[in-house]
Amino acid sequence: MSNLLLEAKTIRALTDISEARTQMHITHESQTDPQHLPNPSFHWVMQEKPLSLLHSIAEHFHRDAVDFATRFDVLWENGQLMHKMGRTKSFVDLLMACECSLKSHALLSLQDLPPAEAYREVRSCGHNIHRLAKLAAYLPDRAAYQHLGAELAQLPVHVRYSLEAYETFFPAFVDRKYADQNYSETIGNNPWVVRVRGSLGVLVDGIANELSGAIPMDLELLLQHEHELREFAKTCLK
Question: CA 25, CA 117: separation in Å to the nearest integer?
């Protein structure tokens, strides 16, 4: 390894350590100020988290889920998006949050497989929420998996485009009762959407501790982990 590359990776590792210490500080403040972190999925614990390739991949999907959920929470009742296609686009954020969280759960349910093989198994599900929900087994209680798998199985992410959304919910020259999906019973039904958001919360909170905490203070181990991530990216993400 060249000196330049080693220096770059050392800086990256030290930055990660600094970020981990910051998260530990946030945990301390949240314990004394309940309003500091209103979202329980951001509560970090004072412990070392597993430093493994599989956990790192799962953590990426977990963070994606939290970001999509946060955007949904902000925009769902936004006045400028209270029309059918605006709400449909906001709902797609919730749909993506569910997909990402299920992928995180599915990955940690396949810890007996090599990380690349586990990733390919999860990736093969694509955007299919029903398949992901069947694959996920991290939580002993499968109620949230089953709820999301059943309710979201027929709601594809391509409804983010108004052309496809209209064809799905409001097809031209076709009675709405014959549409592929009933808008009034799904996206247009706020209690139904809230229940979906509740099941997502169960998944996000249920896995948060597994992916939270401080990284090990071992520079050699951190650099090895960076190398594993690079090899994984070359093999699986290209």
Answer: 36
d(CA 16, CA 76): 33
pTM for this structure? 0.79
The per-residue b/e assignment along 175-188, b for 16 or more CB within 10 angstroms, e otherwise, is eeeeeebebeebbe
Rounded CA separation 96/88 (Å): 12
Could you tell me which residues come within 8 angstroms of residue 27 by beta carbon, excluding any fewer than 6 positions away?
A: 43, 44, 45, 46
Rounded to the nearest 10°, the torsion over CA 183, 185, 191, 193 is -50
Instruction: Give residue 93's Cα distance to chain centre.
Output: 11
Q: In the structure encoding, which two tokens stand for residue 83, read together? A: 């029309």
The two three-digit tokens of residue 121, written as one number = 């198994």
Owner of token pair 């329980």 = 40
Residues near 220 by Cβ (< 8 Å), separated by ≥ 6?
none
> What is the distance between the alpha carbons of residues 16 and 31, in angstroms, rounded to a whole number?
23
Cβ neighbours of residue 87 under 8 Å, at least 6 residues apart?
76, 81, 187, 188
SS3 helix, strand, coil % of the chain, rounded to 5?
A: 70, 0, 30
Burial label, 60 (beta-carbon count in 10 A; 0-12, 13-18, 19+): middle
Residue where the block lists tokens 């409001």: 170
158-213 pLDDT per residue, tens: 899 999 999 999 999 999 889 999 999 999 999 999 999 999 999 999 999 888 88
Reduced to 3 states, what is the DSSP secondary structure of residue 214? strand
For the chain, give the number of residues: 238
